[in-house]
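Recall that a protein's primary structure is simply its ordered list of amino acids. Everything else, from secondary elements to tertiary packing, is in principle encoded there. The following example makes that idea concrete.
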Amino acid sequence: MSLLLAAESEGGGLEFPSLTQLVEWPDIIDPIGFNKIALIHVLSVVVPALIFFLASRQKSLVPSGVRTIAEGTIEFVEKQIIMQAIGPDGMKYLPVLLSYFLFVFFGNITEVIPFFQMPANARIAGPIVLALISWAMYIGIGVKNHGMGYFKEVLFPPGVPPALYILVTPIELLSNFILRPFSHAVRLFANMLAGHILLVTFGVLSITVAGMAIGWIWLEVFTFGGLVAFTAFEMFVSLIQAFVFTILAAVYIGGSLHPAH
């Protein structure tokens, strides 16, 4: 728990933990460097797989329980991500986009789960790997559907006056083939890290104020209320960031299928 990392100061209060203490964890399995972040990533694979396995075991026509969750998640990704960002020809990418959404969501939501209380995506390694996979798909799908001429279509978009290519082409090269995976990853990483720091801040404040004189009870109401509010907000952010990361991946796939647009 991050709050337990706050050390007692000489005055008897609590110090804010350093940023290193908030995001680095000791190894659970020492020889291979398996720590809490690695455990969350493993669970982010195992838990969705278990949900869909249990859902597949139900044979009734009317879904219930875990099957309702599984089918609702699939429908959400289909209608709110694929159809909005790609269109009907994007349905063949449902498995990978559904995997993105669930992996990122479960890696985020551990921020508000006791014992974990840390979003795995507040470490840059996970988001950058996912973003690089998305970037490789963006290029691979484009080349598969349009051949090597795909690069020409992206770098020299039709309808642009030839004189402007000297400005447009370097911008397209940077934005599409160099900076894209980093901006994709940093958006997720920065949001989850900021939320984690915010929760720890209000948690430490709440603990500190609780040890003060009774006259400070109004401040405890404020700090604890803020902690509860931001915890609820971070649950929402965990879902939104999973949605944003996945829909951007879908937009990149759509751009590979239809580069002229």
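The CA atoms of residues 121 and 253 lie 22 Å apart. Confidence is low (pLDDT under 50) at residues 1-12.
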